[in-house]
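Support reply, case 0932

Customer input (verbatim):
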Amino acid sequence: MAGVDEAGRGPLAGPVVTAAVILDPARPIEGLGDSKALTEARRRALVPLIRAHAWVGIGIAEPTEIDRLNILHATMRAMARAVARLPIRPDHVLIDGNRIPPGLPCPADAIVKGDASKACISAASIIAKTLRDDLMMNAAARFPGYGLDGHKGYPSPAHKQALRDLGVTPIHRRSYAPVRAALESRFSTDANQCG
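Our regenerated output:
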């Protein structure tokens, strides 16, 4: 049984990251739970245990793919990639949410709030969130001034202000309204300066 979850559907910047995890029933992991309900320190303590005692697959959809497909379809593709990248093929997949990605290699069920009720989905949520946070910390070093290490790309007031002040980076999702507005504002300002 593989659990699948995502991190990063709502942010204005960065990828959506998905993870698929098959837990080993012979090596249970204590303390799993919904990644959003755990402290960052607790999540980070669980990641090496999950990676040592379970099988993990990762799927990522970058901002360009999100803009091309939309966030729902990009997330579904990333989830299917995570399952495909598991080192062993699952017999069944449990997806956190209310939709099942097409193209999975086995039967699947969608479970709303599954990250709080199924250990394999909890483990996937912890892996996905921690990896995405790390990617955004790296992005903060590449794109200073946006505060990506704090808000992780979510649409905080500070992030929206940085978009207005600094413009749009290559990791911003251009199909999202605040990013689109920043692009249009920048374009109209540039056009006025040229006129």
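We compared this against your earlier run and they match. Two observations from our side: The chain has seven helices and five strands. The first helix runs from residue 40 to 53. Please reopen the case if you see a mismatch on your end.
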